[in-house]
Inverse folding.
């Protein structure tokens, strides 16, 4: 019955799409897409469809397109009454029960009839989109697998590989079964033969070469389309509208200065260590007064040198010739960790702001991008509440403090969404455990000797020998909890895979979302330990960020 319902539903939607073209499309548009104007041939098409044996006589007597659409809607309404127990004795009428169609067959025949009757040009392709496929699995209840059977029936339509019609199924990673079974058989759909997977997340995710990243243009287009429906429509065509609203991301030096607000706190992040010379201590304090970030680099550099030589650094370098400034990659790899340690030592929330952070935290996911924008906008509305001087037609420039508050709230709410999908509570505990682990490792590592500890890497051979861990990590990745990718190992010939928290979760755990250094190498046993940990019930204390408005601190 589900397959029959699906046939009628899709054919109804196909005819509705044609009606929209005929109603709103001008002649030039219709010619471009290969749809011919209504001139009577649509009724000939309806008669051909109705006479086809695939309907088992249900459409007998239909002569016009209007009659065809009405009859199809009648069938759909009957199924809805059946599902809602609104039929006598909860039985389908004999006219329906005795004319069930084969899934996919009527759809292909309607597509063929559209071309042969001249409604569509002969070379026009018909695409059928089945969205929210993952919702079918939610139909399983009380031990029944009705939802899975519905998926299997859908697969049967794909298995026909009928050239008259093409299917596109929209679903989330975790919902596509492996293998995708075909209803009524022991067979399954074969990848690259019956279907091909197009991973939108992978296509929109940022690669090492930023020039190939297409997500920023996509996000800009969506942002402009949303603006076009508001009082800010005049700004929608501005190609730099994201930079205008969110501004540029603050430089590391600017963020460090904001984390160290006054002279009394400038020494907090320079924790004295045993044996440091007075000259070096004075040097660190002097440079911290002017450039806290450089002072943090100096402290970490000296700690690394001391660890290697088992001696204390006493020589104070000349200004402008600092050795850590000449090591560009050394600094780049440790910048985010240094800022984290400065903010943590001064009990400051990390600042997330600017176009780069908004796009980076979105992780190539347009839903997350819109989610972040929504929360930033809500924070801005709160910040400007009562300000009567704001022009509702002039697009605002939102301060970094307001953006940070909005982004932090978005991150917190995204984590609350975690009890969704398979193994949800276990996944949530796991995320809390590794988030806290990464935070402690990055803040406790004062020499900054391993700045890649915001992710982990696993040997694939070891992972395949731990199927429970492997399945769990795949589940986390498919639900969007983790970002995973192949990892080029530092050990020749070794196959590895690396995993990071989804960027949107990083503000909650106060860890960097940028990956500038190789992640930590771990074994499956460590993952299992994290999976079974109960420590994650304790939440990281997250100091509230001060937001400034025209009326002062709120």
């Amino acid at each position: 019955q589900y397959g029959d319902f699906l046939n009628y539903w899709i054919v109804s939607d196909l005819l509705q799409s044609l009606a929209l073209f005929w109603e709103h499309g001008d002649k030039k548009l219709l010619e471009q897409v290969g749809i011919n104007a209504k001139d009577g041939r649509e009724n000939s098409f309806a008669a051909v469809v109705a006479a086809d044996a695939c309907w088992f006589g249900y459409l007998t007597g239909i002569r016009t397109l209007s009659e065809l659409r009405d009859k199809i809607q009648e069938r759909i309404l009957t199924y809805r009454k059946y599902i809602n127990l609104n039929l006598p004795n909860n039985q389908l009428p004999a006219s329906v029960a005795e004319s069930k169609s084969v899934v996919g067959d009527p759809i292909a025949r309607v597509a063929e009839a559209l071309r042969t009757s001249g409604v569509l040009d002969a070379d026009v392709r018909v695409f059928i989109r089945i969205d929210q496929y993952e919702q079918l699995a939610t139909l399983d209840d009380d031990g029944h697998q009705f939802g899975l059977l519905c998926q299997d029936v859908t697969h049967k339509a794909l298995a026909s590989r009928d050239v008259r019609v093409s299917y596109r199924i929209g679903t989330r990673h975790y919902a596509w079964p492996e293998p995708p079974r075909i209803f009524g058989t022991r067979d399954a759909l074969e990848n690259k033969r019956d279907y091909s997977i197009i991973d939108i997340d992978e296509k929109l995710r940022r690669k090492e070469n930023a020039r190939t990243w297409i997500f920023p243009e996509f996000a800009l287009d969506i942002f402009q389309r949303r603006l076009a429906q508001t009082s800010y429509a005049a700004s929608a065509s501005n190609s730099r509208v994201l930079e205008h609203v969110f501004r540029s991301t603050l430089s590391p030096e600017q963020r460090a200065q904001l984390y160290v607000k006054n002279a009394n706190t400038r020494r907090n992040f320079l924790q004295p260590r045993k044996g440091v010379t007075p000259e070096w201590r004075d040097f660190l304090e002097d440079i911290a007064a002017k450039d806290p970030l450089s002072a943090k680099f100096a402290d970490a550099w000296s700690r690394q040198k001391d660890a290697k030589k088992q001696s204390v650094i006493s020589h104070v370098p000349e200004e402008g010739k600092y050795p850590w400034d000449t090591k560009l990659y050394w600094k780049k790899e440790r910048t985010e960790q240094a800022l984290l340690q400065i903010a943590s030592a001064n009990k400051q929330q990390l600042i997330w702001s600017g176009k780069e952070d908004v796009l980076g935290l979105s992780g190539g996911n347009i839903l997350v991008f819109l989610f972040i924008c929504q929360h930033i906008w809500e924070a801005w509305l709160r910040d400007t509440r009562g300000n009567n001087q704001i022009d509702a037609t002039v697009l605002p420039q939102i301060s970094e403090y307001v953006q940070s508050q909005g982004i932090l709230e978005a991150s917190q709410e995204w984590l609350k969404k975690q009890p969704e999908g398979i193994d949800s509570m276990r996944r949530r505990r796991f995320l809390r455990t590794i988030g806290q682990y990464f935070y402690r490792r990055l803040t406790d590592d004062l020499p900054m000797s391993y700045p890649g500890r915001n992710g982990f890497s696993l040997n694939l051979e070891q992972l395949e020998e731990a199927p429970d861990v492997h399945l769990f990590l795949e589940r986390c990745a498919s639900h969007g909890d983790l970002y995973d990718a192949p990892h080029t190992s530092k050990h020749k010939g070794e196959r590895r895979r690396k995993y990071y928290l989804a960027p949107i979760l990083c503000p909650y755990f106060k860890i960097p979302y940028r990956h500038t250094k190789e992640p930590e190498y771990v074994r499956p046993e460590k993952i299992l330990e994290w999976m079974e940990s109960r420590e994650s019930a304790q939440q990281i204390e997250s100091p509230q960020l001060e937001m400034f408005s025209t009326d002062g601190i709120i």
